[in-house]
Amino acid sequence: MRVTNKMMSNNFLRDMNYNLKNMQRLQTQLTTGKEFKKPSDDPFKVARSMQLYSDIGANKQYNENVKDTINWLDTTDTATGQANNVFQRVHELMISAGNGGYSDNERRAIKDEINERISEFSQILNTSFDGKFIFGGSRGTVKPTDVTGGIQYKNAPVIKVDKISEWQGKKLSVKVAGGASVEVDIPADIKSVHDIANKINDELEKHNITELEVKSDFNEKSLTFIANKDKINAVSVTAVSPDVILDIKGKLDPVDKADKIDSGNIQLEYYSNENDEVTDAERKMIGDKLNIEISTGVTVGYNVTASEILEFKNSEGESKNAIDILNSLVNHLDGKTADGAEAGSIDSIKELLNGDLKDVKDILENLTKLRSRVGAMQNRMEGAQVRNEEENFNIKEILSKTEDIDIAEKTMEYATMQTVYLASLQTSAKVIQPSLLDYLR
């Protein structure tokens, strides 16, 4: 076969182009720090890298899930601890009520405090976190419990509170007729109408205004102003902050404390969003477990429900209902039977110290068991968070080995390729000899 100059030139250009492509590939790797720029560079490594990026993204979400769950469990632990304190106090009051030297009036005072504790317990069960009621199960946007009964005040001036957010961080001016104006700063992190009432009462007490008291209603929707008519003629409440969007300006005529209506003992009950009574479907939703995925294929239930707190089995396996227990003990303090029928005072006290006292101990044991479960889940979530972070670190290390270059190695390869390129140029200059055309010029 005859070898022509054109064939030699074409072979030279092909080889030179190949060398230039290799130099370009190495130069791109050095500038990007990656082994590949497009899938065709290394399909296997690209596929593996994409899978590793997917794993890292999933792990980040798992880590966010774990962090949110830890915050939820912290709130649950605080709430169950507060509920435990409530029933510890109820237990102490019940023991005091068994004192033979106590009069009916003294037992009635104990009953009044227990009524307040029942209301407090309902507020604890309605604790919210991140816009959801933590004990509400899958019906988290609706509070699980409510209370009825208690003392109401006839014709008392009321200020409606539609949204807590409209009160947060605002300043109010409460002025008693004939007295000084008291400015009340509402904290930005205020959580309930009950807390607003407490804040106003604290400021009034600091200014020695003891004739006026502010109460929140049980539904957490309004503030009621109660005062002594003989000492206070009127109260004005004004929004001081210019950006307040509250219709609370004007004069209020306080109701006399004597104008109160006792609508019976406070009773705890499940709250229905649409009906007078809780339906079976609503009750089931309140008792539902909330699940969250904390790693691939690992899903855990993390919430405590109001149903678990209110309806449980004691150590003897007997079914107990905290709502019935609370109703029973306040009725016994009134000298009645558990269902509210008239009975002898002595018999009621015996029932209080025998059955009711044991039932309250059972509630405390159940709360302790639930709080222990929350603590165990907190430990598990903290362990999962550590494992998740370590796994993410390991995946990133594998990813680095898959797609990152060895700088020293690639620098040497690039230098070698430069030498090869220059050598090919020099060699080609010697291989391509002058042709006949060079002599005819």
Word description of this protein:
There is one protein chain. By secondary structure, the chain is an alpha+beta fold. It has two domains: 58-149 and 274-395, Up-down Bundle (f41 fragment of flagellin, N-terminal domain), CATH 1.20.1330.10; 151-262, Sandwich (Immunoglobulin-like), CATH 2.60.40. Helices cover 53% and strands 15% of the residues. It contains ten helices and 17 strands. It has helices spanning 5-32, 43-97, 104-125, 193-206, 280-286, 306-310, 322-333, 345-403, 407-431, 436-440; strands at 128-129, 132-133, 145-148, 151-153, 158-160, 171-176, 181-185, 212-216, 222-227, 235-239, 251-252, 260-262, 267-270, 291-295, 298-301, 311-313, 319-321. The strands form seven sheets. Strands 7-6-10-11 form a four-stranded antiparallel beta sheet, with helices on one face. A three-stranded antiparallel beta sheet has the order 5-9-8. Strands 1-2 form a two-stranded antiparallel sheet. α1 (5-32) packs antiparallel against α9 and α2 (43-97) runs antiparallel to α8 (345-403). The longest helix is centred in the last third of the chain and has 59 residues, at 345-403. The radius of gyration is 38 Å and the shape is elongated. The model is unreliable at 242-251 (pLDDT under 50).
Task: Map the helices and strands.
Blueprint: H1 5-32, H2 43-97, H3 104-125, E1 128-129, E2 132-133, E3 145-148, E4 151-153, E5 158-160, E6 171-176, E7 181-185, H4 193-206, E8 212-216, E9 222-227, E10 235-239, E11 251-252, E12 260-262, E13 267-270, H5 280-286, E14 291-295, E15 298-301, H6 306-310, E16 311-313, E17 319-321, H7 322-333, H8 345-403, H9 407-431, H10 436-440
Antiparallel strand pairs: 1-2, 3-13, 4-12, 5-9, 6-7, 6-10, 8-9, 10-11, 14-15, 16-17
Helix pairs in contact: 1-9, 2-3, 2-8, 7-8
